[in-house]
Structure formats: C-alpha cells, structure tokens
Amino acid sequence: MKKTLIAALVALSTGLFALAPVHAATDEHREAMKEKWQKMTPEEKAAAKEKMKARYDAMPPEQQAAAKKRFAERHPMAAENAQAKAATPAPANAPAAAAAPAPVK
C-alpha cells in the first residue's frame, strides 16, 4: 500500500514538473503570434482573417461550438460584443429599398 502511494506521488510530482515548460512555451508562442500580428500589413491581416474564417466554416457544428466557448473564455468582452451584434436585428426594409429600382412613370 505504501509503495503504491509513494509511486503515485512520484508520478504526480514528475508530471507537474513536466507541465511547467509546456505552459511557458504556450505563453511564448502567444506573445510571438501577437507581435507577428502587429507587424502585418492590412492586406496580410485580411488574408489571415479569411483563412481563419474558412477554417472555422469547415468545422463541424460541435467543434464550432467548442471554439466559440474557448473564444468567450479567452476574450470575454469581444464575445459579449459579438453576441450583442448578433442579437440586434437589421432593418428589414433598408436592404430591399436600396436594391429595388426606382418606379418608372
């Protein structure tokens, strides 16, 4: 019993020490991506956004829901703004009026 407990504690402590570099690498990667994004031109940013949108659209609905949840956890203010924008209905007659030709007399 004691040997099993000791083995479990050793395995757990080793696992926790192994996770520390992974966390640091994730933060470093995030910083590098942020700097890369800031250095991009508007055309490059537009192309990157299109690529991300295409990747998102190719996901199954369950995976899209999980991605939305992760985004909301990481960016709470942006998620609130996106929900508010989606909840606001667009005027129904505005696009139709602009597309309709003028009456001929």
Strand content: under 5%
Task: Quote the average pLDDT.
Answer: 78
Rg over C-alpha atoms, rounded to the nearest angstrom: 24 Å
Tell me how many strands there are.
Answer: 0
Textual characterization of the structure:
This protein is an all-alpha fold. It is built from 5 helices and no strands. Helix 3 (61-74) packs across helix 4. The model has no long low-confidence stretch (mean pLDDT 78).
Detail the topology: elements first, then pairings:
Layout: H1 2-39, H2 42-57, H3 61-74, H4 76-87, H5 93-99
In short:
The chain is mainly alpha-helical. The protein is built from five helices and no strands.
Tags for this model:
single chain; mainly alpha; elongated
